[in-house]
Specification:
Blueprint (H helix, E strand, L loop, with lengths): L14 H15 L18 E6 L13 H17 L3 E3 L9 H10 L3 H18 L15 H15 L1 E10 L5 E8 H9 L4 E2 L5 E2 L15 H9 L4 E11 L4 E3 L18 E10 L5 H6 L8 H11 L1 E10 L4 E4 L2 E4 L18 E6 L10 E4 L5 H5 L5 H13 L15 E8 L6 E6 L11 E4 L5 H10 L11 H12 L7 H10 L1 H13 L5 H10 L2 H10 L38 H14 L3 E7 L4 E2 L12 E3 L5 E3 L36 H4 E4 L2 E5 L7 H4 L2 H4 L12 H7 L4 E5 L5 H15 L12 E4 L2 E7 L5 E2 L4 E5 L2 E4 L5 E7 L11 H8 L1 H10 L7 E2 L5 H15 L11 E2 L5 H19 L3 H15 L5 E2 H11 L4 H10 L16 H4 L3 E8 L2 E9 L4 H10 L1 H7 L4 E7 L3 E6 L1
Parallel strand pairs: 1-2, 1-24, 14-16, 24-25, 26-31, 32-33, 34-37
Antiparallel strand pairs: 3-4, 5-6, 7-8, 7-9, 9-19, 10-13, 10-18, 11-12, 14-17, 15-16, 20-21, 20-23, 22-23, 26-27, 26-30, 28-29, 29-30, 34-35, 36-37
The chain binds one RNA strand of 86 nucleotides through helix 9, strand 13, strand 17, helix 12 and strand 31.
Amino acid sequence: MPVQQPHEKPGRYDFSAIEARWQRYWEEQETFRAPNPGEAGAQADQPKYYILDMFPYPSGAGLHVGHPLGYCATDIVARYKRMRGFNVLHPMGFDAFGLPAEQYAIEHNVHPAQTTNQNIDMYRRQLRMFGFSYDWSREIVTCEPDYYRFTQWIFLRLYESWYDEQMRWTAPDGGEILGRARPIHELVAELESGNWGVNGSSDIERTAGTPGRREWATLSEPQRRIALDRRRLAYLDEVPVNWCPALGTVLSNEEVDSEGRSERGDHPVYRRPLRQWMLRITQFADRLISDLDALDWPEPIKIMQRNWIGRSTGAEVLFPLAQAWRIENGQWKRTEGGDPAETAPDGNGFPDAIRVYTTRPDTLFGATYMVLAPEHELVQQITTPQHQDEVTAYVGVARNRSELDRTADTREKTGVFTGAYAINPANGEPIPVWVADYVLVGYGTGAIMAVPGGDTRDFEFACKFDLEIVAVVKPSAEWIMERAEAMVGGIEKTADAGFDRINREFPELAERVARHRAQSAGLGASTLDVLNKNVGVDRLIEHYTRHPRSWGAAFAGEGSAVNSPPSGKSVNVPGGVCPLDGLATPQAKDKIIAWLEANGVGRGAVHYKMRDWVFSRQKYWGEPFPILHGSQGETIALDDADLPVELPPMENFKPVISAEDADAVPDPPLGRARDWMCVERNGKSYRRDLNTMPQWAGSCWYYLRFITPKDSKHFCDSDAERYWMPVDLYVGGAEHAVLHLLYARFWHKVLYDLGHVSTREPFRKLFNQGMIQGFAYRDSRGRLVPSDQIEEREPDKFFLKGGNEPVTRVVAKMSKSLKNVVSPDDVIAKYGADTFRLYEMYMGPLDASKPWNTRDVPGLFKLCQRIWRLFVDEDTGRLSGALTDAAPDEAALRMFHKTAQRVTSDIEQLKFNTAIAALFDFVNFMTPKTTRPRAVMEPFVLLVSPFVPHLGEELWQRLGHDSTLAYEPWPEYDEHLARDEQVEIAVQIGGKIKARIMVPADADRATLEAAALNHERVKDLTANKTIRKVIVVPGRLVNIIVG
RNA sequence: GCGGAUGUGGCGGAAUGGCAGACGCGCUGGCUUCAGGUGCCAGUGCCCGUAAGGGCGUGGAGGUUCAAGUCCUCUCAUCCGCACCA
C-alpha cells in the first residue's frame, strides 16, 4: 500500500516524482561523467580519488538488499569527495563469464549470452534506481569481446613472460625488489648469447662450466621449447585437479564442498591429474606477502592472505634409499647392481633418494621412519614384492576416498609398509618407508621424514604401528606439567599405560596428588605445584626424553635439542656426525642445514601452501585462450593483432557429462565448434585451445579497464592509468578476501614488472562491508521455520500460524527457503531510494553483519519527510515561511557547526550510521523552530545530499539554485562553534556520581574543583570526611576521593 | 584442532580509560485530526520506593586503576575462514 494518498496535501514529499526527475537530470546533464586528464572538462589541478565497488555477478534472481549496502556507502563517499574538490572516478560494470551463468542457462534451456544480457539489463535498471553517481559511460561487461580481448592480451603477457627470481631491481617507486617478471625474449637472448645454459632438468643454468650444463645452440627445437615452457608464467602442466565428470569440467577448490562433491548439483568430484593451464602465482608469493604490509586493509584479511600463501621455512633433506646406497668407511657407496660410477651426491641431485621437506630440520635425528603420499611417484618403484599387493590395494583405496573423508577430524591414521628402507643421512640408520594418506601429495615434496618424537601426527602413527619414537627436543616445563596433570589426573584414558609407568617410576607422586586432590576439590595450578614439589619438573622432562611413548603425546614445540645424536650409539656417516645436543631450536636448524648443504644431502628451503593457479576450465562460457596447438604438441601464441579470439556462437554449449564414469576424459564443448577450432597458419594446421578461462579472469583487471573502457588499442591508457591508480577505496564483501584479491594482486604485479602499470598494488584501502541478514524463527525443537509460517501476535512475540506454539526470533542468512529475502525493488517502490539508502546506512557499522528489519524502515522515511518539511510548506508546496534571511541565533549556529563536524568526520571514517544520527539531531533541533535561517539551512542541504541525493537536489533547486549541488563546496565548520559553550560535568565521590554542575566548556581544573566542592550536595556528603584527593578531568568530570 | 570476528535495554545500535544506553525502532501517555501505518509534545535499562532517594547493570570469573563496555588474565557462547600444510 503506498504511503501517500492522492487526496493528500499538494506539497507533500513526493519521492517518486523527485527521484525520477533527478535521475533523468543527472543522466541528461552527464553530471557524473569523470573526464580523464586531457579530456574536455578535466580539472587537472584537482586531486583524484578512485573509488571502486566490487562489481556484481548478475544472477537471475536480481539484486538483493545485500548488494547495495557497499554501493550506498561508496556513493556517499564519492559524492562527498566531489564536493571536497576531488576528481572522482566511480565506475560500475558487470562480471559476466563463468559457471553460474552457464549453469543457469542450462537449467533454463537458453543460451548464456541471452540470460547474461537479460540479467545485466535487470541489474542495470535496479542499480539506476538507487541514484548512484556512477560514471555510466565507463560501464564494462567482462563477457563482451571488446573487454575480453584484453583479458586474452594479459594472458599472452603471462605466457610470454618468465620470472627471474634472482633479479634485483629498482622499481619505479624507488624501492628495491627481488625477482621480476620479464619478457621471455630476454631469456632467449641470454640463452642464445651463451651467457646462460640449460641444466639436466631443463632449467636455466646461469654459471658457465657447471657440470651437466648444455648450451642453447646444441639443443633441439623441442628441447628449447621445453626449457622455455617450464619458465613461462602461463604454462601447461599435468596437475591433480578436481574433476567432476557429471558437470564435465574441472572445478576449483571452492566449487567443491567438504564432502568431495560439487557445490552445483552435488555430483562426485575426483582428484585426477589432468593437463591444465597453470599460472605461476607461487613465484610472487613473497612479494604478495611483503607488499601487504603497506596496504590499508583490514588486518583479518591480510592474515587470511598470509595464511593462504602459507610461507614456511625449513629444509629439503635427501634420504638415500637403502636399496641403492650404503655407507662404507664414511662414504656413500652404491649397493650391488647400482651404477658404480655414481659415487657420491653432488648437491644438485642424489639419485634414488627420497626428498622431503621439513620445517624442523633440527629434529632430523628423531626421524625414525618415512611416509610417502599414496600418489607419490616413488611408491611403485620402491615397494618390495612381498608388500606389493598390500600397497597397491592401499593406494587404490586412498585415492578413491582422498577428498571424501576429509571432514573426519578424529580420523584414524592408516598406512602400509612398502618393505623399503631409506637411510637417515644424519645418523646412517636405515628407517622404514611407509605409504599413508596423512601425507598429502600436493604439499612440500609429497613425502615426509616422520619424527614421532616431535610431531603429533607422526606420534599417533608411530603408536598405532609400533614404530620407534625418539624425543629430540626437551619439552618445556609448562608442557610437561600439563601432560603430567592430564595423566596423573586420569583425564585421558589413553594415558593409562603411561600413568602406570609414571606411577612405577615416581611412586611418591600418585599418592601425594591423590591426597592433595582430596583436600582441595578439583585440579588447578596447585596440583602442578604438588607435582613440581614432589617430583621436580626436571625429572619429568628427563623422563620424557627417555620414554616419550609413556607420555601419550609428542612435544612439538621448540626447545633445546637432546638425543641428537642419541647417546651411546656410534654413528659413522659421510661428513661426520653433526651434534646438536643443547642447542636451541633456531641454532640447531642453522647448524644442521649448513651440515646438510656441506654434505650434499639437503639445503635450506622455503615452501608455500599456495599452489600455482589452475587456470583452465572445460566450459563454454568463458574467455577462450589465444593459443594454438600444433600437431607436434607445440603451442604457439596468437599475435596481439589476432585478438579477440571470440567465443564461437554455439547452439549446444552444454558440457559432455558422464555422471557415473570417474575415468571419463574431459570433452570441452568448444571441441564441437569444428570450424572455429581449426586454424591454418603458414600452411600448417593448428587446433585452437579448447579450454576457457575461469570466472576470476575478468575480475582480475577490471579496475584498470574502467580507466579507459573504450580504448581499442590498449588494455588501459598509461597516462590515465598513472593519474587514477591506485584505487583509493575498494569496498566489497569479505567472501573475496583471498581469491579475487590475491589473483588481482598477482596480475597487477606481473603488469607492473612488465611496465604496463605504475603501482605495485592495485587497491590502497580495502573495506569489507558486512552481510545483511534476515530474521528466522526457531521452534521448540530448535528447527528453523520459514517466516511466512509465523505471526507476530504482540510486539516481539511470535507464534506458529494457526497454533499456540511460540517461536523465538533469530538472525540467519537471507535465503529463499526461509522466505526472508527482501527485494530492494519493493522497498524503493514504497519509500523511495533515498529512504532505502538511509536505512541501509543507518542499520549499524558498515563492516558489521546485521539483520534487515523492515519495521525500522519507516523511521528513515520519516526523516526524509521531516527534512522536507523544514523547507517546504506541505499545504502550498511553496518554500516554508519559517525560512528566513535573518542571521541565525547562536544556538542554531552552534548546532549547525556541530552537525557539520560530526557528519564530516564520520563520513571520513565510513561511520555512516552515526553521521545519520547527527542529521537526526539537527532535524530534531530545527523542527520546532518557527524561524529557520537560510545561512544554516542551505549548507545543511549540502550535508545531507550525499545520503539522500534526490531530496538534496530537489531542495537545493527549490532554494533557488539552478544547477546540481554535486560540485558545490562541502560546508566548512568552525571547531570553536562546534563545541558547546556550557557543559555538564559529573561530580563523583569515590567514583559514584553524586551531582552535576554546569560550567563553561573551557573551565580549568581549579575552577572545576572549586565548583564541585561548592555544590550543596557535595558539601553535605563530604561533611565530616577528609578529602584525600580530587581528580579533575576538564570537560569531563570531577572525582573526589574521601578518606 | 588452528586462525579471525562478535557478545551492551524489548529490537538495531552509541560511547578518545572519564556521566553506559547517543540516534532510530517499538512501547506508554497527551495534543492535533472526520479519520489514521499522519504530525507535534512528553516519558521509556532493570529492581526497591508515593516521592526524595537508593541498589543493580555492557556473556561469565578474576585483576590493574581514583575511574573499565573500553586495558590484562582465564572462561563461556555464537558466527566466519582454514583444516593431517610436514
